[in-house]
Write a structure and sequence with these properties.
Elements (H helix, E strand, L loop, with lengths): L1 E2 L2 H14 L4 H19 L6 E5 L3 H15 L4 E6 L5 H13 L4 E4 L13 E5 L12 H11 L5 E5 L21 E5 L12 H4 L1 E5 L5 H6 L4 E3 L2 H7 L14 E5 L6 H13 L4 E6 L4 H7 L4 E4 L20 E4 L7 H13 L5 E2 L2 H8 L12 E2 L3 H8 L5 H15 L2 E4 L5 E3 L5 E3 L12 H14 L4 H23 L6 H6 L1 H8 L1
Parallel strand pairs: 2-3, 2-5, 3-4, 5-6, 6-7, 7-8, 9-18, 10-11, 10-13, 11-12, 13-14, 14-15, 15-16
Antiparallel strand pairs: 1-9, 16-17, 17-18
Helix pairs in contact: 2-3, 3-4, 9-15, 12-13, 15-16, 16-18
Length: about 500
């Protein structure tokens, strides 16, 4: 699913008005009716509705929602900011006043904000996507007052919480803290940024019939992975395939005290469909791996009988791909061995965890990572690799620029994990849940990504599909065991069901 910028959203409206054709007022009525229907579906008429309307088209949406709710038996009232208004706002204001003159009240200063009964809903229709500068003056006071009421009242934002910008940071301006955001047709980039989590609440994308030609043919830099994309990427198995068909992966993982990470990664690699898996572990982990995952072959740094960390040069290029990092440790000998690996193996590989921690200490190694490889930092690892940023939007730009500069795929893990591609595209993943915030989840993901690269998915397909499967398996695990009760191993256990139910 494409994520359009605020100017593109306005272009989509204009294109729909011209090519459907439909009047701008009727398109506003259509959008308002979707919001009214959502409110009616989730809240009974016993809840009085107070809609705070700005002077632009977002306020026009709010006025139309008031009229529609009144027609369906709700007690709805509009409070309007005074001043010059947009034409469609003016038309909806006249419609409402003609039918329900006592349901429109001016809002000229904070003292005129209504006193609310305990079960009231507050609907924010102040600014929408039209905001292009920070909110100042008494309007900031209105927003602060609304936020002070959110503990006792449900706040619903129309299109976007007022004060929130669609395409840039809003950290230094008042922003409505909505419980629900009712947005139209496509996601906004702002909804996916961690810094905005306190503002957007639960996001609900409502279709309003924007013209499909615009949505289909207009390019977008940002995307939210959807099931249609996943089904396009997924490659069904060849009936005549054999284990050689699905690749031979080398997983370099584990150190003394961290063999669990190696096991978790190996198990998920096998469960994600790799044909053959060889695990390179220190000698101290040989028996653990052989007993813990008999389907994997196992090699060690054999010249040292009781080695505790990876230190052997890997010169064999017969592997389809390599995954390295889970539980690896950061010993100096391990860093030297990683450097040799990057020199000798030039096909795309997966680097995670301690492999990235080593590279952050020796940053020149970034430029030795093979083109097309996948690295999977969490936010702190990303910061150690590439430096600090002032906000999430700056970090997103840094993520994308480094992916293009280095020619590698960078996965920034989070609620909506961001996947930056060397072609400039960025994909966000919607699957997953807080139950996956537990030790070992990243090791499982490394195994999945390594398995998909071994099966000769392109790196772009591997990262999009792998992250989606990882999150969806986590969602299935949480549904079965609870978010609190699940562990990283449960993600692997549910991978089979993720393939069956998700694709």
């Amino acid at each position: 699913m494409k994520i359009f910028s605020a100017p593109q959203v306005r272009e989509a409206d204009a294109y729909t008005i011209q090519h459907e054709p439909v009047s701008s007022l009727d398109l506003m009525e259509r959008a308002a009716s979707r919001c009214s229907a959502w409110i009616e579906e989730h809240f009974s008429p016993k809840h009085p509705v107070y809609i705070i309307c700005g002077k632009g088209n977002n306020g026009g949406d709010g006025l139309a929602i008031v009229r529609q709710l009144l027609l369906h038996g709700y007690d709805a009232t509009a409070y309007t900011i005074q001043g010059a208004t947009s034409p469609d706002h003016t038309a909806n204001l006249l419609r409402l006043r003609e039918s329900y003159p006592d349901k429109v009240h001016p809002l000229n200063d904070l003292q005129e904000f209504p006193s609310l009964p305990p079960d009231a809903l507050i609907v924010d229709a102040l600014f929408g996507t039209g905001l292009n500068k920070p909110i100042e003056g008494w309007m900031g006071g209105v927003i602060h007052h609304m936020n002070n009421l959110r503990q006792k009242h449900t706040i619903i934002a129309i299109d976007m919480p007022s004060g929130l910008r669609a395409d840039s940071t809003s950290l230094h301006t008042p922003v409505v803290q909505a419980h629900h955001t009712l947005s139209f047709e496509t996601w906004k980039l702002a909804f996916l940024m961690p810094e905005n989590a306190a503002f957007v609440g639960q996001v609900h994308i409502l279709p309003i019939g924007l013209h499909p030609d615009y949505l289909t043919h207009t390019p977008a830099r940002f995307h939210l992975t959807d099931l249609e994309t996943i089904r396009t990427i997924y490659q069904p198995r060849d009936p005549f395939g054999h284990k050689g068909t699905y690749g031979h992966a080398l997983l370099i993982a584990g150190s003394y005290g961290k063999m669990g990470a190696a096991l978790l990664s190996a198990r998920s690699c096998l469960r994600a469909g790799v044909g053959l898996l060889t695990c390179h572990v220190p000698a101290c982990g040989y028996e653990i791996m052989q007993l813990g995952e008999p389907a994997a072959m196992c090699i060690t740094d054999s010249e040292i009988q009781h080695s505790t960390h990876f230190h052997l040069d890997i010169a064999d290029a017969s592997y389809t791909t390599v995954g390295i990092g889970p539980g690896l440790g950061t010993h100096q000998q391990t860093a030297l061995a990683l450097e040799k690996l990057l020199e000798n193996f030039r096909s795309p590989m997966v680097l995670d965890a301690d492999a990235l921690n080593i590279i952050s200490v020796y940053p020149y190694l970034l430029y030795r990572i093979p083109q097309g490889s996948i690295i999977t930092p969490h936010p702190k690892e990303f910061e150690r690799l590439f430096g600090k940023t002032a906000n999430d939007f700056e970090r997103l730009e840094l993520l994308s620029s480094k992916s293009q500069e280095l020619g590698i795929y960078i996965l920034l893990k989070g609620r909506y994990s961001a996947m930056a591609c060397p072609d400039g595209a960025v994909y966000f993943n919607p699957t997953g849940n807080p139950g996956m915030a537990t030790g070992g989840s990243g090791d499982v993901l490394t195994g999945i990504l390594t398995a998909l690269l071994a099966q000769r998915y392109t790196p772009k397909a591997a990262i999009i599909l792998g992250v989606w499967l990882h999150g969806f398996a986590g969602d299935l695990a949480a549904a079965s065991l609870s978010q609190e009760g699940m562990t990283a191993g449960d993600i692997t256990t549910h991978l089979g069901a993720a393939f069956l139910q998700g694709i």
